[in-house]
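Task: sequence in, structure out. Protein: Bifunctional protein FolD.
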Amino acid sequence: MSAQIIDGKKISDEIREEIRRETAALKERGVQPGLAVVLVGEDPASQVYVRNKAKACEDLGFYSEVHRLPAETSQSELLGMIDRLNRQGNINGILVQLPLPKHIEEKAVIDAISVEKDVDGFHPVSVGNLMIGDDSLLPCTPAGVIELLKRTGQSPSGKHAVVIGRSNIVGKPVSMLLLRENATVTMTHSRTPDLPKVARQADILVVAVGVAKLVKRDWVKPGAVVIDVGMNRLPDGKLCGDVDFGDAAEAAGWITPVPGGVGPMTITMLMSNTLKAAKRANGIDR
Ligand SMILES: Nc1nc(=O)c2c([nH]1)NC[C@@H]1CN(c3ccc(C(=O)N[C@@H](CCC(=O)O)C(=O)O)cc3)C=[N+]21
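Result:
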């Protein structure tokens, strides 16, 4: 293996230390960032993520509330809870864990969250702000990808970035952020002809498709940076990314592992957004 591993856990810990310090300073001024996490239903994977988010809050000195609602909760009950959290002064960020049960319309729920408290960056106004370049709360996983690149000394500026996957939560927003960082961006997806050939042109390859081990060494330009956003649960219970790590690492210059790459950054960016929202709510500039 020739590639250097991008240690998302370590970089994430460094950023958390910065957030912890800033939070302590804010507390001196009587401000404590507060996050509300809402979970509908009992999906086991979601339970784990929600627990990790609450743990991160505690670790950084944030106030947090976790609302666990039964799977049968109606859409109007959930909207009622969001309305209360929107008006609750000690809450700066609201995260409704996705996916939601089928009888609840995700769009109605996302639209109901106040833009100032939209720490996921999923609200249409946040998405629009991202597109225009206004300073909104950025979606956590895409923001984490950019942070990983910058803190590894691999600034996207002037590079050719190829993004595989066009989802609203990763592919599209990460492409927009890369563009904002002055990369030349190619967006690809399942209908792109000869995907390996396009991928091979990338200086920075970001993969977010949800297909385990799709990307092999012949998809990777020698020396390229490979960022794996995939999170696939294998039959044996192990987590694995969209990149065949062992194989792609033979060609890549830098590569993120799964777990321990993008995942830890997602939660850290959520904390960073909550801190930012708390500062804004209290008229404190960064
Ligand atoms: N409204 C909403 N916002 C989200 O941000 C959101 C969501 N819904 N629904 C579910 C997905 C998933 N997600 C993860 C975050 C961190 C890890 C993470 O830290 N992963 C660790 C490993 C965890 C493990 O071992 O299971 C890692 O990659 O190293 C994983 C998954 C946030 N999501």
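Residues 32-114 form a domain with the Rossmann fold fold (CATH 3.40.50.10860).
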